[in-house]
Amino acid sequence: MRFPPHFLEEIKSRIPISEVIARRVTWDRRKTQAGKGDFWACCPFHGEKTPSFHCEDSKGRYHCFGCGVSGDHFRFMTELDGMSFPEAVERLAAEAGVPMPERDAAAERRDEQRASVMDALALARGFFRQTLQEADGAKARAYLRDRGITSAVQAEFGLGYAPDSRSRLKEFLAGRGVGKAEIEGAGLVVHGDGIPVSYDRFRDRVMFPIEDVRERAIAFGGRALAAGVPAKYLNSPETDVFHKGQTLYNLARARRAARTLGTLIVVEGYVDVIALHQAGFGHAVAPLGTALTDRQLDLLWRTAGEPILCFDGDAAGLKAAQRAADVALPLLKPGRSLRFALLPAGQDPDDLVRDGGAEAFTQVLERARPLADMLWSRETAGGVYDTPERRAELEGRLKGLVRQITDESVRRHYQQDMQERLDGFFGPAPASRRDYERGQGNWRSGGSRGDGRAGSNRGAAARRSAVSDRLIRSGLASAQGRAAPPTMREIGIVIGFISHPSLLNEAFDYFADLELPDGELARLRSLVLDVAMTAPLISRDAVMDAFEAAGVTDVFTGFERRVRMNRDWAFLPEAAVEDAREALRQALHLQHRHRSLHRELRNAEAAFATEQTEQAYAQIVEIKREMDNLAGTEALIDGFGLLSGRPARSV
Question: Theoretical Cys-Cys bridge with 70: which of 63, 199, 578, 632, CB 3.0 to 4.6 Å?
Answer without folding.
Answer: 63
